[in-house]
Amino acid sequence: MSESAPRKRVRIRHFARAKAAGEKITALTAYDVISAQIFDEAGIDLLLVGDSAANVVYGYDSTLPVSMDELIPLAKAVTRGATRACVVADLPFGSYERGPEQALDTAVRFMKETGVTAIKLEGGERSAAVIRRIVDAGIPVMGHIGYTPQAEHGLGGHVVQGRGDDGAAKLMADALAVQEAGAFAVVLEMVPAEIAAQVTAKLEIATIGIGAGAGCDGQILVWTDAFGMSAGRIPSFVRMFANVRETLLQAATTYRDEVRSGGFPNERESFTDAPNA
Ligand SMILES: Nc1nc(=O)c2c([nH]1)NC[C@@H]1CN(c3ccc(C(=O)N[C@@H](CCC(=O)O)C(=O)O)cc3)CN21
Ligand SMILES: CC(C)C(=O)C(=O)O
Ligand SMILES: [Mg+2]
Fold it and tell me: How many CA atoms, within 13 angstroms, populate the side-chain half-sphere of residue 121?
């Protein structure tokens, strides 16, 4: 890599500092070494090994089925690919709900086996004790409030959270609980932009929005949505910055045609009998 500027690793303290300095924080999901290398080279600050891997890597139709044994290998691959970005892994559904002791066991397993810098888990007030236990063990935690996909059925589907006076008050209480519990940052998912901006103004820790408007301290998207790799419908809050799926489809089709026609491989793409000719 031909980088001119030195690339100091992004540490946890970067996020509150960036917030205080008014510098936007950039985050994307990543699930493998190649995407991690590319996004790291692009200067993305935080790479999340999201449990959205359930959908975009494993093909489940929600995040509920994905397991630690399925996410840990992906997190290992991403940490191998990232030299600057801060790598964070989602704790999967079922791996922390039983309480602080189960949650700490899970977080310790991710730290021991993957090389991530921090873990993320869903829930505000309901997860505060769990966050506190993990943080007290020296493991940085990122919160995730608003629409929490692991609670899809409890929330009644993909529903915007934080609407109305009660919704806004609950979101603020969740945000403060996550901060008070010691989290270094918090994801705000699918909440009205005005409410997300109010939460962002109130908190000292950084807010990272997804479907939460421009008033957050940073933004995160699922990379396969943002760069046009996902199949089918994508959430309305996503902007497609590229169409990688179309590019790959074209490439695969051209390859197929060239193999079928005998055009690939040519002589340069083949070996002769003469050694080191
Ligand atoms: N590919 C992918 N992208 C994501 O953003 C994502 C995942 N997977 N998996 C985990 C969660 C689930 N998320 C989702 C899933 C669906 C909607 C959705 O359908 N949203 C609708 C609005 C709600 C509705 O009317 O149904 C939208 O149009 O944005 C939003 C977030 C966000 N996360
Ligand atoms: C969308 C982000 C915040 C996430 O939790 C995930 O990708 O799993
Ligand atoms: Mg997630």
Answer: 37
Residues with CB under 6 A from ligand 2: 29, 48, 50-52, 90, 144, 187, 210, 220, 222
Which atom from ligand 1 is nearest to the alpha carbon of 221?
5
Q: Which long-range contacts (CB under 8 A, 24 or more apart) does 95-99 make?
A: 95/68, 96/121, 96/127, 96/130, 99/129, 99/130
- CATH number, residue 215: 3.20.20.60
Ligand positioned closest to the Cα atom of 237: 1
ipTM of this predicted complex? 0.94
Task: Please identify which of the residues 97, 125, 180, 189 carries the catalytic annotation.
Answer: 189
Asked, for residue 231, whether it belongs to a domain, the answer is yes
Residue 4 lies in a domain: no
- The DSSP call for residue 181 is T
Give 221-248 pLDDT, tens digit per residue: 999 999 999 988 899 999 999 999 999 9
Domain count, the chain: 1
For ligand 1, whether the C-beta of 158 sits within 6 Å is: yes
Could you tell me if residue 236 is inside a domain? yes
Kindly state whether residue 265 falls inside one of the protein's structural domains.
no
70 is catalytic: no
Q: Which amino acid is at 73?
A: P
pLDDT digits (tens, 9 = 90+) for 74-120: 999 999 999 999 999 999 999 999 999 999 999 999 999 999 999 99
Domain around 164: 13-243
For residue 264, report the distance from its CA to the centre of ligand 2, in Å: 40
pLDDT digits (tens, 9 = 90+) for 132-177: 999 999 999 999 999 999 999 999 999 999 999 999 999 999 999 9
In the reported structure, the alpha carbon of residue 255 is separated from the centroid of ligand 2 by a whole-number distance in angstroms of: 34
Give SS3 for 62.
coil
